[in-house]
Structures are given as structure tokens and as C-alpha cells.
TrEMBL record:
The keyword Transferase applies. It is found in: Nucleus. This is non-specific serine/threonine protein kinase. One of its GO terms (cellular component) is nucleus. GO terms for biological process: DNA damage checkpoint signaling; DNA repair; telomere maintenance. Keywords: ATP-binding, DNA damage, Kinase, Nucleotide-binding, Nucleus, Serine/threonine-protein kinase, Transferase. Its EC number is 2.7.11.1.
Length: 1155
């Protein structure tokens, strides 16, 4: 098949620029390549570490790298793998992928080839194939496809008259560089010289000579299906690409779901049967147990993933078809309209033939566990007896690392669990010793079953007992050498973990050819580095990366690919660490490839970088333990025993493994790591061992272990002068030891109260900037206060305790925010409750000041002084010097939670206030977000304020606490916005208004409850004008008409609508009542700020023209009183309430007269 040009020639193929060419160009521009690369890597690390969810750019970068794994060129794939490894195995929970959005799939879903987005995506895919072509013949095929597609979709350059060329809108979507490629093809005359004959292709293609590789299968099967599509525009589109898809599998993959859809809709029953058999041949091969043992980069799994993607597309198309068919229908047939649609029925019947159990097992073998669970749930929900399938469900939950699911399966099981079922339960819970006992029993019962021996070896390695695993493997292979191929990988893994290089060499000599087994690959890499075989080291690294790219390219075909491929991303991370380690510690390999860029750092910088990467990895034993094991092995390769620093680091990694295992509940594995760490004599060892003992339930042993560790390592540092000699890291360990000792003593009542308090105070003294010390001391004071103070004498005697609790909770907030959700609420509760109690006491003893009341006032003043609220508040900024003057009072800021409004007279004051606020926040560890800060200035004024290097955006209006504020103090915009939001809510609830089973009176109540509340939010602060009142009345009638489903075309009067519903207009009345009630509440309250703002006047000159309506003008108009009378009447609650009711009735009466 060949496309030959007969008209204009195409552009020349773009020149490929290598990394070193780029480096040369940057150096000529004065940009240092190494410094730039180092800066990029540092910035990427900061994007991950600076916030709990990583920066969005990192998520976009990871998504782009995963998409690149689908490239056909092997070298390109390996480069993408290097980038992912350099980036590290970032915890999926910290990446904000687009796939979390429910509309993510719809963004890439194209229901029809007539869709512009489909044409745009297909042309872009072919343009990429055009640029990537290395042969003229391949580029000609891509050029022919582009030429035909431009004609089929009537795409041309942008004309002056857009109305004559509607397809120019599609042309404008393409970037400029793509348009440059397409321009010559608008008038070219390529033609297809040879046409392929698919009639004689074997069926099924999978497994035949035409499907011996992934590229062959997807290309030939797509071409075969295109030959089954009926004549028409779809056939023209697919045929145009038939030559391009043969040379580029991405083009074939893009078209394949759409081709399958048209075959199902237009093909004969024989065509559909052949299609179904092709899919089933793939799935049945993959679901066989032996396929799980194949190379993870095996192309069979890529083909299976392609099948899964096709089914996903058909499922989405069915749902989309159902939706649009139902919307297009009307009347009684609307609910079942889609059932009469031929296209829907063709796809639906095909999907119903899919055997869910077979697909579940195929997905399980492809490690698509979430998809396997979905298919299995569909299979079980079809009426199957779940008891017959619990084994598969249990294995699925074990693979997903879901111990709760495993326990759930065990609880549902009716029959007595078998030995293997018990093993799965023990392994999922980390009970490796129990699993070992079961394996040993299984071996006694059936010694010729190799899976029992494999399970025992895996259990020994997971329990940090590689020596036993090595001995056991040697014994088995001596007795049964025929099992060497299956068990040799366990011997290799145990050998390199122990650093037994002679035994590793012996085991690797047995391996024949290029093994894809992960432990074998790591063994070959480590041995090559030890023996300084540079060529073998580089080739093994490349092979290891290549083996991880295979499953990543399969996983990247669907959303959620990062979660599914995380195991292989973790391995790429480990490969990158191996490469970094030998370059830094051994300067190996010496001859680095000219196309590689290696940033060489010092040993301390590398270990620090590794620690940072470990903090961003998923927090689980399965992910972190392999990395820690590899790091310990790497140190053993360079004779780290001679370097005390590296030996200490190795011991810390053993303790880190123990910590990860303990937190995962794998106490037996944690104990094995503790035994290894004990030989390094680190002070942290006693901390971790005490936590492990406490987790086991041995509280006394844990306290004894801590006491012994503190005495041994810090017994000579009891004096203040001696404590100053400790390094910062040792002070941290000492403080943690004392804190843990205090916590355990507190929980077991092992020490008296004063001794526990002394321990916590020692912690604060040793580490004065550590949040945990202050937090636990405050918690302990709070606990003691609740225990020793009786409820009757609570207020009188709790004052001294509250001072301590508030002070230390405040100090903990000053040095961190780890416990903010416990510290801040408790601090506020104690402080405000005590203030309320003192205020109540003042009311009771108003006539005389008793001694008890004097003491309470004194305590409250002390609490106010030490309260962290005043420390964290904006008083640090000395804001009282600035601000606008209202009623003789300067107001510089208005605060509600973290929403702060700064008020200033001019730009100078505003700049000073913002800088002081920013500085005060930085002293507390808070950062002011310039992007979320807006500046609003008076009319015809100009100002510019920057925070750091970022300029604050100036806006005409802004939203504060849900209400829109403008420079004219006009509430019309807010009223209109609220009306629009209420109308949207009314439309969203359309199903309720259509429901004939719900009565009109209930619907009216629902409108008031669900719609009016949206509209009247913040209405107490509105200043209403006549036009606003008219809009509110119109909105109320719109709600009623919508409720009755009355169209404006029916020309029914408002009075007729109200009569039918048996209601009167009430919305404006409720807004007036709420505003009047709120005004009375403010005037009676003790909040002087709000009262001053409402009653006071703003200093300065008013502009020319008619005065604007003020907030108080509404109150005067509705009550027909002047301001003096109003303020007097608000102090008398009952009198004001009667006046409010009278004002509302008068307004209704005047409106009725007007009507």
C-alpha cells in the first residue's frame, strides 16, 4: 500500500534536534544547561513537598508522561520512563488528576464522526504520525490521509466572510504549526496506489500470522473492520486513514472504537459474530492462569487493554444514545423511546453478550483490579451464588491491598475456610508467621505443589528473613532441580538483599536469555555494577525500564492509569535511584551516554533528596519497603562499614522499615526489622521498639524500654548546660522520647500528675519550637481540669487551668498546624464559655461586686492576654492607626473567619496595611494568597498594590461572604444575582414541579424552603429601590408560574395565578420583615462595630448630584418614623416587633391599593 503524490510536494521532514544540540544552543544564549536542569528538578520537588495536594502543573506533567508511554518508538518510551523515575513515585492521592472529575471521560468521548472534536483529534493524531515518520513512504501515507480528511470535513483556510465557510471554525482550532503542515495539503493531489485485500485474512486475527505483534494486530484488525463499514461518510473517513494506520498504531487506536461501533450498527450478523469472537479470543487467552506468569510487557496485555477500551466506549455511547433519544421523544413514549432505536439495540445486545466472569478474570490477570471488581460485581448481581466465587473475590481484594475486603469475604463465607484461604487472610493482615505455619502445613500435605514453596519463600522475604529464604531455596533445588526456573528468582532476590554476591552470581548463571523477572533484573544490574561491567550495567538498566513501560502503556489507555500503573512507576523510581547512587558514590559508569543528562550531587545531598522523595511516596508497606531494602543493599556494595555516617543511615532505614510495617499492622515484619536495627545502637531504636511493644499491648514493657533508652543515651544530659551540648537532631530524639514516655505514663497512670507535667515541660524546654510538646501539655492540663473540678464549682476553680490550656494550645498553633483541628476548637470553646460564665455572673451580681466576681474578671483578663486569638489576630499589624472613619470610629478591617476586608483612605494606607498584614502572617507561618485577593477602589480612582512580586487585581465589584459589593454601594447587582441563582435552583428542581402526585400547597412550601432561601440570602443587608422591589415581585410570580408550568404564551394575569394557588405575594414582605428585625437586633446588641456602621456617618465630602438611597432610608420609609424615634423604639423589643408587623401590613395594603 503506497500513497504517491501527483501534485504539489509536501514540506520537508523537520530536522530532529538532540539533547546535546539543545544544550549547545542554550549555552550560546548564555543559559547554563546543568544549572537550568538542576533548577527544574528542584522546582518539581517543591511542587510536591510544599503542599499536601501537589501543584496542578505536576499532575499535568505526570499525565503527559504517561501518555508518552504509548509511543511506538522504544527509545522514546525509555526516555519517558527515565522522566517518570526522576520525578519519583508520587503518592496518587497527592496528584489532582483530571480523572477525578465525573466529566473527564465525556471530554474525550465523541459519539459521532461528524463531531468536530473527533475530526480535530483524528487530524492531530495523523499530524503526529506525519512528523514522526522516518521514511518518505510513511510520510506520504499520512499526507494522503490528511488531504482526504480536509476534503471530507470541508476544512479550508479562514475566509474573510466566515458565513460562507462554517468549517473555518474548525480550522481555527489548529495551532499555527499544525496549520503550516496542512496548508500545502489543501491543494495537493495524493492518491492511493494499492489497496489491501482483507477478505482472505484468517479469523480470528489474534494469534495468527497477521496478529503476531500488537502493532500488526491493531492495524490489520482495524483494516479488516473498515472493510465491513457501509458506504457513506464513515466509510470515507476510515478509508482515508487506512494507509496511515498501518504505519502508526496511534491512528488505528483512535479510530478502532468508532469502527467497531459502525460495524455493530451497519454490519451483518456474520460480521458481528466475527467481531465478538475476536474479542472473546483475546479475553479468553488473557484470563487463563498461565497468562499471569507471562512478561508484564507482553503485547497480549496491550491487546486486552485495547478490548477494554472498546467496551468502555460502547458503554458510554449506549448511555449517551439513551439520553438523547429520551430527550428527543415526547409524551407517553418518552420513557422507552430508546428501546425502539436500532443503533441502541445493536450496541445493547452486543454488550449483553459479554461474559462478565471471563472479563473479570482477564482484568485480574492484566492487573486492572478496579475494572476486574466492576465486572465481577456485575456478574454476581446477575443472580449468581456468591459463595461459589469467594475465592476469586478474596484474591482480588488481596491484590488490591484491601485487608478490610479480605476480612469481609471471610465473614461472609459459610463453609469452613481452606488452608489457602486462611493464608490469603493472614497475608493481607501482615501476619506472615501465621502464613508461614499454614504454608508449612500445606507443604506437608502436598510436597509436590510448587505454589506452596513459592508462597513460603515470599513470606520469608517479606518478614525480613532473606537468609532463611536462601537456605530454603537451596534445599528445595538440591532435591528438585526441575523447579529451578520457577524458584531461582527467589534465590536471586534473597542473595542481593543479603549482599551474598557469590551466591547471586551462581544463581544468575542459571538464568538463560533475557529474563523479565524484576528481582532477576535488579540482581543483574547490581552484579554488573559490582564487577564494573559498564556495558552490561547500562543494557540491564535499559531492559528493566523497558519491562516497566509495557504495562504503563497498557494502563495509560484508560483514566486512572497512574493508580493502576503505580507499581511500575515505583520500580522506575528504584531504577533511577540505582543510577543516581552509583554515579555519586562510585562515579560509575564513567562513560555516560552523550544523550543522557546526569545531575551529579554530593552524597549528603543525594541522601537528603532521597529522604524528601520518600516523604512523597504512598504511605504503605508494599510501596516503601522495596525502596528501603534496595537502598540498604546499595550501601552494602560500596563497603559502607568504613563510613560511620553511612552505617548510621543504614540503621535509620531499618528503623524506617520497622515504622512502616508497624503502622501497616505488620508487627511480625516490624520485629524482624527491629532485630536488624538493634546492631546499629541508634537512640531512635528505643523509640521505635517502645511503639512496637505498645502496639502489641505490652504497655509495661514499652515504658520500661523507653526508660532504659533515655537513661542510656541521655542520662548524662540532665543539667541545663549539658542539654545545650546536644545537636538539634539529638535534641529532637530526646524530646520525642520524653513526650512518648509522658503519654504512656499518662495513659497507664504510671506516674503522678506533677511528674507527667514535668515531663511535658521538659519536652518544651528541650525543643522550644516543636508543636507537639505544647499540644500534649495543653491536653493534659485540660484532662486534669475535667477530672478534679466538680461541675458545681467549675467556673470558680477552673480559671487557673484554663489559662494554662489556652496558653499552650495557642503556642502549639504558633509553631505548627498539625493539631489545628483539635487545638483551635478547644481553645475557642474554653475561652468563650468562660467569658459567657463571667458575663452571666455580672448580670446576677450587678448591684455589688463580690470577691468571687472580682477573681473571675481577673482570670478572664489574663486569659485574654495569653489567648492565641489575640496573638494570631491582626492586632499585630497596628491597624488601629489607619482606616476609614465612620461615626468617629476608625475601621481598618472587617473579619469573618479567614475572609478579611481591609479598609483604607488612600493607596499609601492600603499598601502599608497589606504589607503589615503579610508580615504578621509570615511570622505565624501563614501566607497571603495574592491570586485570591482583590482590590476595590472608589470611582475614578487608580491604585496599584503588590504583595511580594505579585500585583493585586483591581475589580469593579467583588463577592464578600456571598454578597456582591460595588463601588456605588448599589445592591441591584446582588439582587439580580440572587434572583438568577434562585431561578436556576427552580429549574434544577423541575422534576418536583412536574410530579402530579405532589399537591400544589406542598409545592408552594417546597418553593419557600428550597428556592426563596437561595434568593433571600444576605437580604438583611440590601438597600432596596423601587426597581429592585419590582424585580423581586416579578421573580416571585415567575416562581409561581414555573410551579404551575404556565407559559407566557398563555397570557394569564398574575391575579389568576395567585387565585389558582390560593396565595398572595409574600416574598418582598418577608425580605422587609427580615431587614427590620435584623436592624432592631443590631441596635439592641452590644456589638458596637455593627451599630456604629449602621448609625454612624462616613467622614468626608459627598459627590455632586442626588444623594443615593442609604440603608436607613428603607427603615424610615417602611416605619414612617424618623431616626431618633426608630433608635428609641428598637431598645423596647415588644414595641419594635409591633411596629415591624404594622409596617409590613401597611406596605401590603398600599400595594393592594396600587393594584
Amino acid at each position: 500500500m503506497k500513497a504517491e503524490p501527483t501534485g504539489k510536494t509536501k514540506k520537508g521532514q523537520p530536522k530532529n534536534t538532540g539533547i546535546r544540540d539543545l544544550e549547545t544552543e542554550l549555552n550560546e544564549m548564555g543559559i547554563n544547561w546543568t544549572e537550568s536542569t538542576t533548577l527544574v528538578v528542584t522546582e518539581l520537588n517543591n511542587c510536591v513537598m510544599n503542599s499536601e495536594p501537589a501543584e496542578p502543573i505536576l499532575s499535568e506533567l505526570v499525565s503527559a508522561l504517561l501518555s508518552g508511554c504509548r509511543e511506538t518508538d522504544t527509545k522514546t518510551q525509555i526516555l519517558y520512563g527515565q522522566c517518570l523515575g526522576e520525578l519519583g513515585a508520587v503518592d496518587p492521592g497527592r496528584l489532582d488528576f483530571i480523572s477525578k472529575s465525573p466529566n473527564a471521560k465525556l471530554a474525550s468521548f465523541h459519539p459521532s464522526i461528524d463531531d468536530d472534536d473527533f475530526a480535530f483529534g483524528l487530524i492531530n493524531a495523523i499530524v503526529k504520525a506525519f512528523l514522526a515518520a522516518t521514511e518518505p513512504r510513511v510520510q506520504d501515507c499520512a499526507a494522503f490521509a490528511l488531504q482526504e480528511l480536509l476534503q471530507i470535513y470541508n476544512i479550508s483556510r479562514q475566509d474573510e466572510d466566515q458565513s460562507l465557510n462554517p468549517s473555518s471554525q474548525l480550522w481555527k482550532k489548529f495551532p499555527e504549526q499544525t496549520q503550516e503542515i496542512l496548508v500545502p495539503l489543501l491543494s495537493s493531489k495524493y492518491k492511493l496506489a494499492v489497496d489491501a485485500k482483507y477478505r482472505n485474512y484468517p479469523k480470528p486475527i489474534y494469534g495468527s500470522e497477521k496478529g503476531k505483534s500488537f502493532k500488526d494486530w491493531v492495524s490489520n484488525w482495524t483494516g479488516y473492520l473498515i472493510s465491513k463499514v457501509k458506504a457513506g461518510k464513515p466509510c470515507q473517513v476510515f478509508t482515508a486513514c487506512i494507509a496511515a494506520k498501518r504505519h502508526n498504531q496511534q491512528v488505528a487506536l483512535y479510530m478502532l472504537p468508532h469502527v467497531v461501533l459502525h460495524v455493530l450498527q451497519d454490519g451483518s450478523s456474520e460480521d458481528i459474530t466475527e467481531l465478538f469472537e475476536e474479542l472473546m479470543t483475546v479475553v479468553q487467552h488473557v484470563q487463563m492462569p498461565e497468562s499471569q506468569l507471562e512478561s508484564i510487557s507482553n503485547f497480549h496485555h496491550l491487546i486486552a487493554q485495547t478490548v477494554f477500551s472498546i467496551l468502555d466506549y460502547l458503554t458510554m455511547w449506549r448511555s449517551h444514545r439513551m439520553q438523547i433519544t429520551t430527550q428527543a421523544a415526547s409524551g407517553a413514549v418518552k420513557a422507552a423511546a430508546y428501546e425502539k432505536d436500532a443503533g441502541y439495540q445493536a450496541v445493547h445486545s452486543f454488550l449483553e453478550r459479554i461474559p462478565q466472569e471471563v472479563f473479570a478474570k482477564a482484568c485480574f490477570n492484566c492487573k486492572a483490579y478496579a475494572r476486574a471488581l466492576r465486572h465481577f460485581e456485575m456478574f454476581v448481581s446477575s443472580g449468581q451464588n456468591i459463595q461459589h466465587h469467594l475465592d476469586f473475590m478474596q484474591r482480588l481484594y488481596v491484590s488490591m491491598d484491601e485487608p478490610d475486603g479480605v476480612l469481609g469475604v471471610a465473614a461472609v463465607r459459610v463453609s469452613q475456610p481452606t488452608l489457602m484461604q486462611q493464608i490469603l487472610t493472614h497475608e493481607s493482615l501482615g501476619q506472615q508467621q501465621d502464613a508461614q505455619a499454614c504454608y508449612e502445613r500445606a507443604i506437608q500435605m502436598d510436597p509436590e505443589e510448587i505454589s506452596h514453596h513459592m508462597g513460603l519463600l515470599r513470606s520469608l522475604i517479606d518478614l525480613a528473613q532473606p537468609n532463611k529464604a536462601l537456605i530454603h531455596t537451596a534445599g528445595i533445588l538440591a532435591d528438585r532441580p526441575r523447579w529451578s526456573a520457577q524458584l531461582n528468582s527467589y534465590r536471586i532476590e534473597a542473595a542481593w538483599e543479603l549482599g551474598h554476591w557469590d551466591k547471586l552470581q551462581e544463581a544468575l548463571n542459571i538464568e538463560k536469555g533475557e529474563s523479565s523477572n524484576w528481582p532477576v533484573l535488579i540482581g543483574k544490574i547490581l552484579l554488573a555494577s559490582k564487577e564494573k561491567r559498564e556495558a552490561d550495567f547500562v543494557s540491564h538498566l535499559e531492559l528493566a525500564r523497558k519491562e516497566q513501560i509495557g504495562p504503563l502503556s497498557a494502563a495509560s489507555m484508560e483514566l486512572g492509569s497512574y493508580h493502576r500503573g503505580y507499581e511500575h512507576i515505583l520500580r522506575l523510581h528504584m531504577i533511577n535511584e540505582i543510577e543516581e547512587f552509583f554515579k555519586v558514590f562510585a562515579d560509575f559508569p564513567e562513560d555516560t551516554d552523550r544523550n543522557d543528562v546526569v545531575i551529579v550531587t554530593s552524597a549528603s545531598d543525594l541522601l537528603s533528596n532521597w529522604q524528601s522523595k520518600m516523604e512523597m511516596i504512598q504511605l504503605s508497606f508494599r510501596t516503601q519497603e522495596p525502596i528501603l531494602t534496595l537502598r540498604r543493599t546499595l550501601l552494602s556494595l560500596i563497603e559502607s562499614e568504613r563510613d560511620p555516617y553511612l552505617q548510621t543511615q543504614k540503621g535509620k532505614w531499618w528503623l524506617e522499615s520497622a515504622k512502616v510495617a508497624r503502622k501497616a499492622g505488620y508487627l511480625q515484619s516490624a520485629y524482624g526489622c527491629l532485630l536488624q536495627a538493634s546492631s546499629y545502637h541508634l537512640p531512635e531504636f528505643y523509640l521505635e521498639k517502645a511503639k512496637w511493644l505498645w502496639e502489641k499491648g505490652e504497655q509495661d514493657s514499652a515504658i520500661s524500654c523507653l526508660n532504659k533508652g533515655i537513661t542510656e543515651h541521655f542520662g548524662s544530659y540532665q543539667d541545663e548546660a549539658k542539654k545545650q551540648e546536644l545537636s538539634s537532631s539529638m535534641r529532637q530524639v530526646y524530646a520525642k522520647s520524653l513526650l512518648l514516655y509522658g503519654k504512656y505514663s499518662e495513659e497507664t497512670s504510671n506516674l503522678e500528675t506533677n511528674s507527667v507535667v514535668k515531663l511535658y515541660r521538659d519536652v518544651i524546654e528541650i525543643c522550644q519550637d516543636w508543636e507537639d510538646g505544647y499540644f500534649h501539655l495543653a491536653k493534659y492540663y485540660d484532662r486534669v481540669m475535667n477530672m478534679i473540678i466538680d461541675e458545681k464549682e467549675r467556673v470558680e476553680k477552673q480559671g487557673e487551668f484554663i489559662i494554662h490550656v489556652v496558653r499552650f494550645f495557642g503556642q502549639s498553633l504558633k509553631y505548627g498546624n498539625q493539631h489545628i483541628y483539635q487545638s483551635l476548637p478547644r481553645l475557642l470553646s474554653l475561652w468563650l464559655d468562660y467569658g459567657t460564665a463571667v458575663a452571666d455572673a455580672e448580670k446576677r451580681d450587678r448591684s455589688k461586686a463580690t470577691q468571687k466576681l472580682v477573681v473571675q474578671r481577673t482570670v478572664l483578663k489574663r486569659i485574654n492576654k495569653v489567648s492565641m486569638i489575640s496573638d494570631l489576630s491582626l492586632r499585630d499589624t497596628e491597624m488601629e492607626r489607619y482606616g476609614i472613619v465612620v461615626g468617629g470610629r476608625k475601621i481598618s478591617n472587617l473579619r469573618y473567619a479567614d475572609d478579611t476586608a481591609i479598609c483604607a483612605n488612600n493607596q499609601t494606607e492600603a499598601t502599608t496595611l497589606m504589607n503589615e498584614l503579610n508580615d504578621a502572617g509570615e511570622r505565624k507561618g501563614l501566607k497571603l494568597n495574592a491570586k485570591k485577593t482583590n482590590m476595590h477602589i472608589g470611582k475614578e480612582q487608580h491604585a496599584s498594590i503588590t504583595i511580594g512580586n505579585e500585583e493585586i487585581e483591581c475589580v469593579e465589584h467583588f463577592k464578600y461572604l456571598g454578597s456582591i459589593k460595588t463601588d456605588t454601594a448599589d445592591c441591584s447587582i446582588d439582587v439580580n444575582t440572587r434572583i438568577g441563582m434562585a431561578k436556576k435552583r427552580m429549574i434544577d428542581l423541575n422534576n418536583i414541579w412536574k410530579d402530579k402526585h405532589i399537591g400544589k400547597q406542598l409545592k408552594i412550601k417546597l418553593v419557600k424552603c428550597l428556592v426563596w432561601t437561595v434568593m433571600t440570602y444576605g437580604a438583611e443587608g440590601w438597600t432596596l429601590r423601587k426597581r429592585d422591589e419590582k424585580k423581586i415581585n416579578s421573580a416571585e410570580m415567575w416562581f409561581y408560574r414555573r410551579l404551575l408550568r404556565v407559559s407566557w404564551k398563555e397570557k394569564r394575569t398574575d391575579e389568576a395565578i395567585l387565585a389558582e394557588l390560593q396565595v398572595r405575594r409574600h416574598l418582598l414582605e418577608s425580605i422587609r420583615k427580615r431587614k427590620l428585625s435584623f436592624f432592631g437586633h443590631i441596635c439592641r446588641s452590644k456589638c458596637t462595630l455593627m451599630k456604629d456602621i449602621i448609625q454612624g456617618k462616613l467622614e468626608g465630602k459627598r459627590g455632586r448630584g442626588r444623594p443615593r438611597a442609604a440603608y436607613l432610608d428603607n427603615i424610615k420609609t417602611w416605619t414612617r418614623r424618623d431616626s431618633t424615634e426608630i433608635y428609641t423604639m428598637t431598645e423596647r423589643r415588644e414595641e419594635w416587633r409591633k411596629l415591624v408587623q404594622k409596617a409590613v401590613r401597611a406596605a401590603n395594603a398600599s400595594r393592594s391599593d396600587a393594584g
